[in-house]
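haha ok so turns out i had the wrong file open the whole time. this is the CORRECT one, sorry everyone. sequence first:
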Amino acid sequence: MEPRNQEGGHLRAGLLEKEPLQEVDEEMVSEVDLNNTITEEEKEEMHNELTKLEEEIATLRQVLSSKEKRHSELKQRLGITPLSELRHNLSRGWNDMQTSTAYKKTSETLSTAGQKTTAAFSNLGSAISRKFGDMRNSPSFKSFEEKVENTVTNIKSKVGGTSSGGSFEEVLSSAAQASAQDIPTNNLPENSERTC
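then structure:
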């Protein structure tokens, strides 16, 4: 190790080095044992402080152990079980969460989203109803409706004369009966003779 002057600089051939440290000097500094820079008095002070801290830590551990034991005894005497503690902690945690700003903002956002979704479905239902109404009023639907009415009227007139009225089911039932009467029970032609 190079000798040092009173200001802590390195001496080279009796002169104070005025140039900044170079790479070679940095390598030498990193190899210096840091324990050599501590005086014997400082080492002794540090050892004394270390011993004192270790004693304080041991004392604090004993105090903590004693307090934990008393804590456990009090809980046992009060009937506080781990399960009831867990319930209490969960309840308090749930309450804390509900009062948090993040929960409130999320809840408000979900509520708003639900309202908007409900409004969207309502608007969709209204739009579909309106489209069906528009479709029913359209000329092509009116034409179809008229054709169905004419067909029903024709069926009614063929089945039961000119009587009007009756439900759609009655008309279908009458039409089914009329078609059953029109079907011949005999598959033989009428003009052919039977031979026995």
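The CA atoms of residues 56 and 62 lie 10 Å apart.
again sry for the mixup
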